Amino acid sequence: MSQQLDELLEFHWMMDMLQSVDVGIVVFNRQYQIQVWNGFMESHSGMLPSEVRDKSLFDLFPAIKEDWFKKKSNPVFDLKTRAFMTWEQRPYLFKFPNYRPITGSESFMYQNITLTPLTSATGKVDYVSMMIYDMTDVAVGKKQLEALQVSISEAQERNQSLL
Protein backbone atom coordinates (compact mmCIF):
# COMPACT_ATOMS: atom_id res chain seq x y z
CA MET A 1 0.00 0.00 0.00
CA SER A 2 2.84 2.40 0.88
CA GLN A 3 4.50 1.91 -2.54
CA GLN A 4 1.21 2.62 -4.33
CA LEU A 5 0.74 5.77 -2.27
CA ASP A 6 4.30 6.87 -3.04
CA GLU A 7 3.70 6.28 -6.76
CA LEU A 8 0.43 8.23 -6.62
CA LEU A 9 2.12 11.12 -4.83
CA GLU A 10 4.97 11.12 -7.37
CA PHE A 11 2.45 11.11 -10.23
CA HIS A 12 0.65 14.05 -8.62
CA TRP A 13 3.75 16.26 -8.32
CA MET A 14 4.86 15.30 -11.84
CA MET A 15 1.47 16.38 -13.20
CA ASP A 16 1.68 19.59 -11.18
CA MET A 17 5.11 20.28 -12.70
CA LEU A 18 3.78 19.58 -16.21
CA GLN A 19 0.98 22.09 -15.65
CA SER A 20 3.17 24.82 -14.20
CA VAL A 21 6.28 24.89 -16.42
CA ASP A 22 6.77 28.01 -18.50
CA VAL A 23 6.71 25.96 -21.70
CA GLY A 24 3.72 24.89 -23.74
CA ILE A 25 3.17 21.14 -23.80
CA VAL A 26 0.74 19.53 -26.21
CA VAL A 27 0.49 15.79 -26.81
CA PHE A 28 -1.36 14.62 -29.89
CA ASN A 29 -2.07 11.24 -31.48
CA ARG A 30 -1.71 10.04 -35.09
CA GLN A 31 -5.06 11.62 -35.93
CA TYR A 32 -3.72 14.93 -34.59
CA GLN A 33 -6.23 14.89 -31.76
CA ILE A 34 -5.00 16.71 -28.67
CA GLN A 35 -4.51 14.50 -25.61
CA VAL A 36 -2.58 16.82 -23.26
CA TRP A 37 -2.83 20.61 -23.01
CA ASN A 38 -0.86 22.14 -20.16
CA GLY A 39 -1.30 25.35 -18.18
CA PHE A 40 0.94 27.42 -20.48
CA MET A 41 -1.26 26.52 -23.44
CA GLU A 42 -4.42 27.17 -21.46
CA SER A 43 -3.13 30.55 -20.29
CA HIS A 44 -2.00 31.77 -23.73
CA SER A 45 -4.85 30.32 -25.83
CA GLY A 46 -7.71 30.89 -23.41
CA MET A 47 -8.83 27.30 -24.05
CA LEU A 48 -9.28 24.80 -21.22
CA PRO A 49 -7.85 21.28 -21.52
CA SER A 50 -11.42 19.95 -21.42
CA GLU A 51 -12.26 22.11 -24.47
CA VAL A 52 -9.41 20.79 -26.62
CA ARG A 53 -9.06 17.16 -25.52
CA ASP A 54 -9.76 14.70 -28.37
CA LYS A 55 -10.26 17.60 -30.81
CA SER A 56 -8.30 18.01 -34.01
CA LEU A 57 -5.36 20.41 -33.82
CA PHE A 58 -6.31 21.65 -37.30
CA ASP A 59 -9.97 22.24 -36.43
CA LEU A 60 -9.01 24.24 -33.34
CA PHE A 61 -6.22 26.14 -35.11
CA PRO A 62 -7.14 26.41 -38.82
CA ALA A 63 -4.21 28.80 -39.42
CA ILE A 64 -1.84 25.83 -39.01
CA LYS A 65 -1.24 24.53 -42.52
CA GLU A 66 -2.14 20.85 -42.26
CA ASP A 67 0.04 19.56 -45.13
CA TRP A 68 3.09 21.45 -43.89
CA PHE A 69 2.62 20.36 -40.27
CA LYS A 70 2.10 16.72 -41.24
CA LYS A 71 5.32 16.79 -43.30
CA LYS A 72 7.10 17.99 -40.16
CA SER A 73 5.46 15.51 -37.77
CA ASN A 74 5.13 12.31 -39.83
CA PRO A 75 8.86 11.51 -39.50
CA VAL A 76 8.49 11.91 -35.74
CA PHE A 77 5.85 9.16 -35.76
CA ASP A 78 7.48 6.96 -38.40
CA LEU A 79 11.20 7.36 -37.78
CA LYS A 80 11.04 8.02 -34.02
CA THR A 81 13.11 11.14 -34.45
CA ARG A 82 12.67 14.67 -33.17
CA ALA A 83 11.72 17.61 -35.37
CA PHE A 84 12.33 21.28 -34.73
CA MET A 85 10.79 24.54 -35.90
CA THR A 86 12.46 27.82 -35.02
CA TRP A 87 11.05 31.32 -34.88
CA GLU A 88 13.56 32.31 -37.58
CA GLN A 89 11.99 29.82 -40.01
CA ARG A 90 8.42 30.57 -38.96
CA PRO A 91 7.70 33.19 -36.27
CA TYR A 92 5.02 31.10 -34.54
CA LEU A 93 2.83 28.03 -34.79
CA PHE A 94 0.15 29.28 -32.40
CA LYS A 95 -0.52 33.00 -32.82
CA PHE A 96 -0.60 33.90 -29.15
CA PRO A 97 -0.54 37.54 -28.08
CA ASN A 98 2.69 38.81 -26.53
CA TYR A 99 2.08 39.46 -22.84
CA ARG A 100 5.67 40.23 -21.95
CA PRO A 101 6.09 43.69 -20.45
CA ILE A 102 9.75 44.03 -21.52
CA THR A 103 9.13 43.01 -25.12
CA GLY A 104 5.75 44.66 -25.53
CA SER A 105 6.81 46.00 -28.93
CA GLU A 106 5.72 42.77 -30.61
CA SER A 107 2.06 41.89 -31.02
CA PHE A 108 2.56 38.12 -30.96
CA MET A 109 4.74 35.52 -29.24
CA TYR A 110 7.70 34.23 -31.25
CA GLN A 111 8.04 30.48 -30.74
CA ASN A 112 10.45 27.59 -31.10
CA ILE A 113 8.78 24.19 -31.36
CA THR A 114 10.18 20.73 -30.59
CA LEU A 115 8.29 17.61 -31.65
CA THR A 116 9.33 14.48 -29.72
CA PRO A 117 8.13 10.91 -30.30
CA LEU A 118 6.53 9.26 -27.28
CA THR A 119 7.40 5.58 -27.54
CA SER A 120 5.09 3.04 -25.90
CA ALA A 121 6.30 -0.06 -24.05
CA THR A 122 5.92 -1.97 -27.34
CA GLY A 123 8.25 0.46 -29.14
CA LYS A 124 5.48 1.99 -31.24
CA VAL A 125 4.94 5.76 -31.47
CA ASP A 126 1.26 6.60 -31.16
CA TYR A 127 1.75 10.05 -29.62
CA VAL A 128 3.95 13.06 -30.17
CA SER A 129 4.84 15.65 -27.55
CA MET A 130 5.05 19.19 -28.83
CA MET A 131 6.90 21.73 -26.69
CA ILE A 132 6.35 25.40 -27.39
CA TYR A 133 9.03 27.81 -26.16
CA ASP A 134 8.44 31.56 -25.93
CA MET A 135 11.32 33.11 -27.86
CA THR A 136 9.97 36.67 -28.00
CA ASP A 137 12.77 38.18 -25.90
CA VAL A 138 15.42 36.54 -28.10
CA ALA A 139 13.67 37.56 -31.33
CA VAL A 140 13.25 41.18 -30.22
CA GLY A 141 16.87 41.33 -29.09
CA LYS A 142 18.11 39.94 -32.40
CA LYS A 143 15.94 42.33 -34.40
CA GLN A 144 17.21 45.29 -32.34
CA LEU A 145 20.81 44.17 -32.81
CA GLU A 146 20.34 43.85 -36.57
CA ALA A 147 18.75 47.33 -36.72
CA LEU A 148 21.68 48.73 -34.73
CA GLN A 149 24.19 47.07 -37.07
CA VAL A 150 22.43 48.63 -40.08
CA SER A 151 22.51 52.06 -38.39
CA ILE A 152 26.21 51.74 -37.63
CA SER A 153 26.96 50.61 -41.16
CA GLU A 154 24.99 53.53 -42.64
CA ALA A 155 26.76 55.98 -40.32
CA GLN A 156 30.15 54.59 -41.36
CA GLU A 157 29.21 54.96 -45.03
CA ARG A 158 28.14 58.59 -44.43
CA ASN A 159 31.41 59.30 -42.62
CA GLN A 160 33.43 57.73 -45.47
CA SER A 161 31.67 59.88 -48.05
CA LEU A 162 32.51 63.03 -46.07
CA LEU A 163 36.21 62.25 -46.19
UniProtKB/TrEMBL annotation:
The record's listing under InterPro entries reads:
PAS (IPR000014), PAS-like_dom_sf (IPR035965), PAS_4 (IPR013656)
Lineage of the species this protein comes from: Bacteria, Pseudomonadati, Pseudomonadota, Gammaproteobacteria, Alteromonadales
The residues covered by the PAS domain are 12-78
- A Pfam family this chain is assigned to: PAS_4
Q: Which domain of life is it from?
A: Bacteria
What's this protein's name? Diguanylate cyclase
SMART domains (UniProt xref): PAS
Identify the species of origin.
Alteromonas australica
Q: Which residues cross the membrane?
A: none
Report the Gene3D superfamilies cross-referenced here.
PAS domain
